[in-house]
């Protein structure tokens, strides 16, 4: 899963009733083959995530 700065991230809820979260990739960290993403979520919260199966990268063109 390749992401670049500016791409959007959609994280699906992992339990019934859990809301989806969306945000923007603001920085890439770690190794090129297994990057960590610094994401600024739409509510203003920032977090470092390692994208998993519940995560979609939406490329901005």
Automatic annotation (TrEMBL):
Protein origin, superkingdom: Bacteria
Q: Which InterPro entries match?
A: DUF1918 (IPR015035)
Q: Gene3D superfamilies annotated for this entry?
A: Domain of unknown function DUF1918
Question: What range(s) does the DUF1918 domain occupy?
Answer: 1-57
Q: What is this protein called?
A: DUF1918 domain-containing protein
Q: Which organism is it from?
A: Microbacterium alkaliflavum
């Amino acid at each position: 899963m390749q992401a670049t700065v500016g791409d959007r991230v959609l994280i699906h809820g992992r339990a019934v009733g859990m809301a989806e979260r969306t945000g923007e990739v603001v920085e890439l960290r770690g190794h090129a083959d297994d990057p960590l993403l610094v994401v600024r979520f739409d509510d203003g919260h920032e977090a470092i995530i390692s994208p998993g199966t519940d995560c979609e990268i939406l490329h901005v063109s």
